[in-house]
């Protein structure tokens, strides 16, 4: 018996980019301690009061099928939050609650692309993007952002591939680069979408992790609310990765369509998780800032460590929990450097190449370990780069 080509093609035949990560996991399993700067997950767990509320909700009987679009109070809370942040009028009819941002990305593309449609995305990209696009039988086409532009995508590069395309997927603050798109970048993106009649899928799951500048949702730009689907999640903002809760915000008729999709796929999100999510949102911005604080601190540490040497440079990390380090001065690819670092110093980072060709010769470092170990590991990484340059 044969599986469908749709499912066998999800990975697109190439490596899934996790080879260095898997090697590190093998070393750990064999008893070698490895410092992991590879995972995009907080080093804290979900806060106890949120878990207590989840328990309370479950004990109160919210364990049956829950409302598929999302319980009204949570849809309202998401709408209020999005409206306050973006200034765009938003009601519960604009909101679908999803089991995390990943399923929201899938649903959004399922909703905007027919089989064979070209779906654009920006390279460097979050590892699941091309597979998500192939998963809905779209044809993924990458638009490269460039290291010399600090990975801000150029509108003309997007326009050059937009003819006949159906959608564009963008992500700011960005995983893997840590870059926050400027207003000019977002305006350029919006212009291309209007000119070429593209849907815009805006992945904003890192919107609470802004270290410099401001988060601008492209849905707020002129003529964009009717063609934008915003993907949100509580994974990063509230350290709730395992609870699988997120949302899509978009035009009501698109939300209606995606409710039908949810009815035939996920059948919604557990009620006790939705209740806890509402409780967590009501903790407000102070709580969100507390969750983001360790990354803000570690970014400062990184600036300090990197300022003492010239071997490694950093792409301006204005948001998200990652640093993109440029190791091209060593003459090595990101992948070769990452393997060599793992071998020599038992430090695991992600090669830039795992996130597309545009990030070749770079490393993605997740700021997800305790401050002093983080500082020590970065020092070791820089020292290793210096030793490689000295050998050239
Ligand atoms: N988008 C980006 C850019 C991400 O980095 C992630 C998770 N690492 C997601 C979406 C999906 O997150 P989740 O499904 O946990 O909400």
UniProtKB/TrEMBL annotation:
InterPro entries in alphabetical order: Aminotransferase_I/II_large (IPR004839), AspAT/PAT-like (IPR050596), NHTrfase_class1_PyrdxlP-BS (IPR004838), PyrdxlP-dep_Trfase (IPR015424), PyrdxlP-dep_Trfase_major (IPR015421), PyrdxlP-dep_Trfase_small (IPR015422)
Gene Ontology biological process terms from the UniProt entry: amino acid metabolic process
The protein's name in its UniProt record: Aminotransferase
Residue intervals of the Aminotransferase class I/classII large domain: 34-377
The reaction(s) this protein catalyses: L-aspartate + 2-oxoglutarate = oxaloacetate + L-glutamate
Family: Belongs to the class-I pyridoxal-phosphate-dependent aminotransferase family.
Gene Ontology MF term list: L-aspartate:2-oxoglutarate aminotransferase activity; pyridoxal phosphate binding
Keywords: Aminotransferase, Pyridoxal phosphate, Pyruvate, Transferase
EC number(s) stated in the UniProt entry for this protein: 2.6.1.-
Alphabetical list of Pfam families matching this protein: Aminotran_1_2 (PF00155)
Required cofactor names: pyridoxal 5'-phosphate
């Amino acid at each position: 018996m044969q599986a469908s080509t749709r499912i066998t093609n999800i990975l697109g035949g190439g490596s899934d980019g996790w080879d260095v990560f898997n090697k590190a996991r093998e070393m750990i399993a064999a008893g070698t301690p490895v410092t992991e700067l590879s995972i995009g997950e907080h080093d804290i767990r979900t806060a106890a009061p949120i878990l207590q509320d989840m328990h309370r909700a479950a004990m109160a009987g919210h364990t049956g099928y829950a409302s598929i679009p999302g319980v009204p109070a949570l849809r309202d809370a998401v709408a209020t939050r999005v409206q306050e942040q973006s200034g765009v009028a938003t009601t519960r009819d604009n909101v679908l609650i999803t089991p995390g941002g990943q399923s929201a990305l899938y649903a959004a593309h399922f909703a905007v692309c027919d089989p064979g449609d070209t779906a654009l995305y920006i390279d460097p990209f979050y590892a699941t993007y091309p597979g998500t696009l192939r998963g809905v039988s779209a044809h993924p086409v990458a638009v490269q952002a460039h290291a010399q532009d600090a990975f801000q995508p150029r509108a003309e590069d997007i326009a050059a591939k937009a003819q006949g395309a159906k959608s564009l997927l963008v992500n700011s603050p960005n995983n893997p680069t840590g870059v926050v798109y400027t207003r000019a970048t977002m305006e350029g993106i919006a212009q291309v979408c209007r000119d070429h009649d593209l849907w815009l899928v805006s992945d904003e799951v890192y919107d609470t992790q802004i270290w410099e500048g401001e988060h601008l949702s492209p849905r707020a730009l002129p003529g964009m609310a009717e063609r934008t689907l915003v993907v949100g999640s509580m994974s990063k903002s509230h350290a709730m990765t395992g609870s699988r809760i997120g949302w899509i915000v978009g035009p009501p008729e698109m939300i209606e369509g995606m409710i039908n999709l949810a009815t035939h796929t996920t059948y919604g999100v557990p009620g006790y998780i939705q209740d806890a999510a509402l409780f967590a949102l009501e903790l407000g911005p102070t709580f969100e800032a507390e969750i983001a604080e360790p990354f803000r601190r570690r970014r400062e540490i990184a600036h300090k460590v990197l300022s003492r040497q010239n071997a490694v440079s950093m792409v301006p990390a204005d948001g998200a929990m990652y640093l993109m380090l440029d190791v091209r001065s060593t003459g090595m690819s990101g992948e070769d450097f990452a393997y060599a670092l793992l071998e020599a110093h038992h430090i695991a980072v992600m090669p830039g190449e795992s996130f597309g060709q545009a990030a070749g010769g770079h490393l993605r470092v997740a700021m997800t370990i305790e401050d002093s170990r983080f500082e020590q590991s970065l020092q070791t990484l820089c020292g290793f780069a210096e030793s490689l340059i000295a050998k050239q």
